[in-house]
From TrEMBL, chain A:
The lineage of its organism: Eukaryota, Fungi, Dikarya, Ascomycota, Pezizomycotina. One of its GO terms (cellular component) is GPI-anchor transamidase complex. Keywords: Membrane, Transmembrane, Transmembrane helix. It comes from the Eukaryota. It is found in: Membrane. This is Rhomboid protein 2. The chain crosses the membrane at residues 26-47, 73-92, 104-123, 135-153, 173-206, 301-319, 639-662, 693-714, 726-744, 764-793, 805-827, 847-870. One of its GO terms (molecular function) is serine-type endopeptidase activity. Residues 64-206 form the Peptidase S54 rhomboid domain. GO terms for biological process: attachment of GPI anchor to protein. It is a multi-pass membrane protein. It comes from Echria macrotheca.
UniProtKB/TrEMBL annotation, chain B:
GO terms for cellular component: GPI-anchor transamidase complex. It comes from Echria macrotheca. Belongs to the PIGU family. This is Phosphatidylinositol glycan anchor biosynthesis class U protein. It is found in: Endoplasmic reticulum membrane. It is a multi-pass membrane protein.
């Protein structure tokens, strides 16, 4: 249907819209104003305009016949009004231009409104016996389309598609069906009545409906309407006529070419705008859009939009509309359904064990293990020990793990669940209640015969290196030179719970720590089960992410989520459970905190309940989510909801990279050759320049290879050397871009195109790495993406040294080294050497890859960006292809 | 870079650099070869080094290597590898063997590039042929392509097939059709699919035949050289027969596995996912369809681009890299090795950036999604398969774009007024 397309194509060029709007005749303007006025009035709820004016079959009576005229002006909402205006105006304008303002007025207030309304009312009330109300100008749209269709049919009977001839008068019917299918609240019957009247009129019976011309001419001349009213279209068009004298039904030779566009090549009455649209929709037109220089101004705004939307998306997540309540997906778990019997005399056993283990405090690891081993052996479990020695940043982390296996009396030893307690927790405090509790639980569990999986009790000297060594050795993935193999093993691990109970006295709530190495999280069902058991069955509080108080409002939710994201992004091990998660063993650490009335037996019951739930599993937890963000113990978002945020931030780099690639292939403006526009056979040529790829590729590859240097340095420097190394590196980092840029400008004299290509390749790599990383560690990808976001907007400033240095200092403020320094400033307890030592330890022991991402993904992109900002391109002759 | 004079010293330096890089990677990162050998993108059931070691062990202990159902590679590889000392005691010699094979392939590629066949074949001369890269650059691109290096470090046995195919083409270009046929027979013996390269290779040999056989008509030429291929193949098969204890049982385990896809280990191809979820009654039908699809490109391309058989070989290698039963990145690296021969057509290609970006993205996303599927347990096979489909899409884009550039180049010779103009495709 060409008519709306005219206005759309005209919209593409602003000046044409304005000139088109200026040339609208009077009646069209009046209708437009009426629709707008009625819409504004409809905003006032008191007036209840829609009930007043719509065509409601039951309400139409003698006194309410005005509805037959008012219903086309009233619309349901703004969207309805705008769409109808856009559809109606071109058609109405053409109708009026042909028939004159007065005729149109008479017709539209007369037969064109009432006839379709009558038909609709008749069918609706008497045939369908329904009461659907209609309103809106689309009935006129279809009416005018009907008239147009018949006229087009007379001129160009068939639309040739392939070998089929489709009569052109059926086009409005196709549109009718489309609208009925696609627009939800449209009235098929109403449109059909309008169309029927339109066909009727188009077939020539309009003259029976139209008021007599002589009368109208008399009125017109008597009132001198033509002279008084602006944009008035006279009946004989001799004094108006945008197109001069129009043939009303003449048919110039149709310019159809047998392709699908044949229908539209009908007559001059369509006007220049129609031909332009035709021309623009041919292949050269699409090319014209492609070559439009304004198109390349768009990507930086698009990138900015992506970044902004990505960040705003994140802040929308804690709202109720976007987050969900947690639920247990694995029905086998049945958390909180069992009665837990831990307590009673086990309290005495606990106190005895606490006294004994209290006596071991301060002794060496071997002595502690000897003492614990006697206790465990007295329970009757098989025990074993494992030595490990890790070296990182000049320090040695060595120790001995002790573990015991409770074989399920009626199980087949193919699966196992683990209960871990570290002698010292992550903060270095002694796990004074956790160790006796694990021993008491071992004694308690041994008495039950309902275990289907083996239970392994593990006591490690520290919270990170010990469990990591044990889990690695259990799965035979350990480095034999550093970690001993396990002499005793059981089946595949299905789950693990770690106890961190350093607090003395009764507690109030349980803190669940669930972050794993490299941001991997356990299955959400495990956290939900613990939450259900501790919070539901046992009546304790449950908290996450060190939010000791959480009031379930937006700020607390946001803070929880951001803390979780930070922990996930850093990817450090946050407890004994972290080492289990990379092996697809779901694990959490439970830390009682607060002052309340729950005692150690309550904690034991929580563990018992969780183990009873884990006992029911037939396979690994797989039903619930592995990728989620928890904002409160019972609210989460899953990956489908939060991933677009990081993907958008990564996509912004790709968009800029593609835009820069395209820009680099275009000729420089001041050295433009004459592009051959629209050659004689209608084929425009696209002048492109050759791209000199060698230097940009070399620079980007060099930056990537240089990244190995800081990675190696910070992972292998000894502890005392860390701060001086870092300081020297930070200083070099600031100076290196200057030096490299100077070298480039002096010896290679890169052009603007080469700087564009450097930026394009480095952003392409950055976007690629970050999108891949977002699937593995969403938070790290998002954090790095946001910190690297200024790189999208960097460009050389050849003429302005001030801008250059300003941008360079801005980039230095968001460099990796600066980020580290800012982190030390924000978290007062940390200093650079602690951070770097922790990173080196996590790299050596846990296999954390955050340093790789920072130094091998972010830093090379930063370096390339700095080089681009400091560049001083000069123009050289570029060769065209 | 346009055919600049390259001295022997420079080439030797290139080879030395590539060898040093590979040796450095082998020795400085002791865990790297095993890590790469374990990756499905590099090792397939018919090219895996681990399976070769298994077969070697059985062979050395006088058990048929095909009894275990693990080893699916050609029998004659076993005596070759058993000549080397045991891998666990002295791995360096195996590494040196693979490095040598890589360098030989690079040498063959150098000869192909330097002959100028890509720019001007016997029946067609491209107007753009001045802008080509010398053999030095083409060999450098091949040797330093990360895919080639990863294949070498992962010790996939497809390097032998690559070497044989490249030698076949080099000999054909040099005017030694007999040697070309012998090399192709070796390639076919090692992996089944190079047999499909016979028609274009025959045409290439015929176009570049030595003066002594100038007057021979095409049909006689073709028949005699097909006979050569058959003879060499039967000789090799006979040797294998004798070697595996006088039995033909190696045939189902080697070529049968390729034809019937009995091993469904995931790889970067399209076949495994289809056949994992297929009902048995449809299996043979779909196997026939897939093989027919793979072979259908040979006839069409050979006839259409008769005048440039080297182009046909390049395009077919690209198509095989996507559609063969057990592809790996080594097939992609072979295809990407032949593409720089057509540097003069790069300006005619329309999607170079998209192709480069897609291939790079999938190279990084593929292992990430495989990790999510197998290790983290939070993805499933669809993630990995989707990324391999995108990888196939990128390679298909490259094949199609190269075809477009070749055809456009040929067409511009007939219609010189259309140079530089945008064409409208129907």
């Amino acid at each position: 249907m060409p008519s709306p397309a005219i206005s759309f194509a005209a919209l593409l060029r602003g000046t044409r819209v304005r000139s088109y709007a200026n040339r609208l005749p009077l009646f069209t303007r009046l209708v437009l104003v009426a629709i707008v006025v009625f819409w504004v009035l409809g905003l006032v709820p008191v007036l209840d305009l829609r009930n007043w004016g719509a065509l409601v079959p039951d309400l139409v009576g003698i006194t309410t016949l005005y509805r037959l005229n008012t219903f086309p002006f009233i619309h349901l909402n703004l969207f309805h009004a705008v769409m109808n205006i856009l559809a109606l105006i071109p058609l109405l304008e053409r109708f009026e231009a042909e028939y004159g303002t007065l005729t149109s007025l008479a017709l539209f207030f007369g037969p064109f409104a009432t006839l379709p309304a009558f038909i609709y009312l008749f069918i609706e009330k008497f045939v369908l016996r329904a009461n659907t109300s209609v309103m809106g100008a689309s009935i006129w749209v279809f009416l005018l389309l009907g008239i147009e269709a018949i006229r087009t049919y007379k001129m160009n009977p068939y639309l040739v598609v392939g070998t089929h001839n489709i009569p052109t008068w059926t086009t409005p019917i196709a549109l009718l069906l489309c609208v009925a299918a696609l627009v939800p609240s449209s009235s098929f019957l109403g449109h059909l009545s309008g169309l029927a009247v339109g066909y009727f009129c188009g077939l020539g019976y309009l003259k029976y409906l139209a008021p007599p011309e002589k009368a109208l001419r008399f009125v017109e001349s008597k009132l001198n309407l033509l002279g008084r009213l602006p944009h008035y279209v006279s009946l004989d068009q001799k004094t108006y006529g945008r197109f001069g004298v129009l043939p009303t039904s003449g048919s110039p030779p149709p310019r159809s070419s047998g392709v699908a566009l044949g229908m539209v090549g009908s007559s001059q009455r369509l006007g220049p705008s129609q031909n332009d649209w035709l021309h623009s929709m041919s292949s050269s037109g699409v090319l014209r859009i492609r070559r439009d220089p304004r198109l390349l101004k768009l990507p930086p705004y698009l990138s900015l939009l992506c970044i902004v939307v990505g960040v705003v998306w994140l802040f929308l997540l804690p709202l109720d509309d976007y987050s969900r309540r947690t639920y247990i997906s694995e029905n086998a778990l049945l958390p909180g359904q069992v009665h837990t019997y831990f307590g009673g005399s086990d309290q005495n056993v606990f106190r005895a064990y606490k006294h004994e283990t209290g006596g071991l405090v301060g002794k060496s690891n071997i002595e502690i293990n000897d003492g614990l081993e006697t206790i465990v052996k007295s329970i009757g479990l098989k025990t074993s020990r494992q030595n490990f020695t890790y070296q990182s940043a000049g320090r040695v982390y060595s120790g001995e793990n002790l573990y015991a296996i409770l074989q399920a009396p009626r199980g087949d030893a193919t699966e196992a669940i683990v209960l871990v307690a570290a002698w010292e927790n992550v903060k270095g405090e002694h796990n004074r209640n956790g160790i006796p509790l694990i021993l008491t639980l071992a004694r308690y569990f041994k008495r039950w015969s309902l275990w289907s999986k083996d239970i392994i009790f593990l006591v490690t000297p520290d919270s990170i290196a010990g469990p990591q060594a044990w889990v690695d050795a259990y799965h035979d993935a350990h480095d034999s030179s550093r970690v001993d193999s396990l002499p005793l093993k059981s089946g595949a691990l299905q789950g693990a719970i770690a106890l961190d109970y350093a607090q003395e006295g009764r507690f109030e709530s349980v803190h669940i720590v669930y972050d794993g190495v490299n941001g991997q999280l356990p299955n959400l069902d495990l956290i939900n089960s613990v939450n259900s058991i501790a919070g539901g069955q046992m009546g304790m509080g449950v908290s996450i992410q060190e939010m000791w108080h959480h009031n379930d409002q937006y700020p607390d939710r946001l803070r929880t989520m951001l803390r979780g994201m930070l922990k996930q992004g850093l990817g450090l091990a946050s407890g004994p459970h972290s080492s289990f998660i990379p092996y697809h063993v779901d694990a959490v650490t439970l830390q009682p905190f607060g002052i309340g009335w729950q005692d150690e037996m309550a904690m034991g019951r929580v563990v018992e309940g969780t183990f009873r739930s884990l006992n029911n599993l037939l396979e690994h937890l797989h039903q619930s989510f592995f990728f989620y963000l928890l904002m409160q113990r019972e609210r989460f978002v899953s990956i489908g909801t939060y991933l677009p945020s990081a993907m958008l931030v990564a996509a912004n780099f790709t968009i800029m990279a593609i835009a820069l690639w395209v820009k680099s292939g275009q000729p420089v403006q001041n050295a433009k050759k004459e592009p051959e526009q629209d050659g004689s056979d209608g084929n425009p040529s696209t002048p492109a320049v050759e791209r000199d790829l060698f230097l940009p590729l070399g620079v980007v590859t060099l930056c990537q290879f240089l990244a190995v240097v800081p990675l190696y340095l910070f992972n292998h420097a000894t502890e005392s050397m860390l701060t001086p190394t870092f300081t020297i590196f930070a200083v070099l980092n600031t100076l290196l871009p200057f030096a490299l840029s100077q070298y480039l400008t002096q010896y290679h004299a890169p052009t603007t195109q080469q700087y564009q290509l450097i930026k394009s390749f480095s952003l392409l790599l950055l976007g690629m790495f970050l999108s891949s990383l977002a699937t593995l560690n969403f938070s790290l990808a998002l954090i790095i993406g946001l910190l690297a976001a200024p790189l999208t907007f960097m460009r050389p400033f050849p003429t302005s040294p001030a801008a250059r240095f300003l941008c360079a200092s801005l980039l230095n403020a968001v460099s990796p080294t600066a980020a580290l320094l800012i982190a030390t400033a924000v978290w007062r307890g940390l200093d650079v050497s602690t951070i770097l030592r922790g990173a080196a330890f996590a790299w050596d022991v846990c296999g954390m890859y955050t340093p790789v991402v920072v130094w091998c993904v972010w830093w090379p992109a930063w370096m390339a960006g700095s080089l681009v900002v400091l560049g001083r391109p000069e123009e050289r002759k570029v060769k065209t292809l | 870079m346009d055919g600049a004079k390259v001295t022997v010293g420079r080439t030797a330096g290139l080879y030395a650099g590539a060898a040093v890089l590979r040796l450095a990677l082998f020795t400085l990162f002791p865990g790297l070869p095993d890590l790469l050998t374990g990756r499905v993108e590099i090792s397939t059931p018919v090219t895996s080094f681990k399976r070769l070691q298994e077969g070697l062990f059985l062979y050395n202990h006088n058990v048929s290597p095909y009894d275990g159902g693990v080893y699916h590679q050609a029998p004659l590889l076993l005596p070759l590898f058993s000549l080397l000392p045991s891998f666990s005691t002295l791995p360096i010699l195996t590494y040196l063997l693979y490095i040598a094979v890589d360098l030989l392939s690079a040498g063959a590629l150098l000869k192909i590039a330097d002959s100028g066949e890509a720019g001007s074949s016997a029946l067609f001369t491209s107007p753009r042929r001045e802008k080509r890269w010398s053999g030095f650059i083409v060999a450098a691109v091949f040797l330093f392509n990360p895919f080639t290096i990863a294949t070498c470090i992962g010790r996939s046995t497809s390097v032998f097939t690559t070497c044989a195919i490249l030698h076949a083409i080099a000999k054909a270009v040099a005017g030694a059709p007999f040697s070309a046929m012998v090399a192709l027979s070796f390639a076919t013996y090692l992996s089944l699919y190079p047999l499909l390269l016979l028609p274009p290779l025959l045409l290439l040999c015929y176009d570049r035949r030595p003066p002594s056989s100038q007057k021979q008509p095409l049909l006689n030429f073709a028949l005699s050289h097909i006979a050569v291929v058959l003879a060499v193949l039967s000789a090799l098969l006979q040797m294998s027969y004798l070697m595996t204890g006088c039995s033909w049982e190696f045939l189902p385990s080697t070529y049968g596995v390729q034809l019937t896809l009995s091993d469904l280990t995931p790889n970067i191809g399209l076949w495994w996912y289809f056949f994992i979820e297929m009902f048995d009654s449809f299996r043979s039908f779909f196997l026939a369809v897939f093989w027919l699809h793979l072979s259908s490109y040979v006839g069409g391309l050979t006839l259409r681009i008769r005048r440039q058989p080297l182009v046909v070989l390049t395009l077919l290698l690209g198509i095989f890299a996507i559609f063969k039963p057990y592809p790996s990145i080594s097939d992609a690296s072979l295809f990407l090795a032949m593409v720089p021969l057509y540097r003069h057509l790069f300006p005619l290609m329309r999607y170079t950036f998209v192709i480069a970006a897609v291939i790079m993205y999938t190279t990084f996303l593929g292992p990430a999604f495989y990790h999510l599927w197998i290790y983290a347990g939070s993805g499933n096979a669809n993630f990995f398969y989707a990324i391999t489909l995108v990888w196939g899409l990128g390679l298909s884009l490259l094949v199609c774009d190269l075809t477009f550039a070749v055809l456009r180049d040929e067409w511009e010779v007939e219609r010189p007024e259309m140079v530089g103009k945008e064409i409208r495709q129907i």
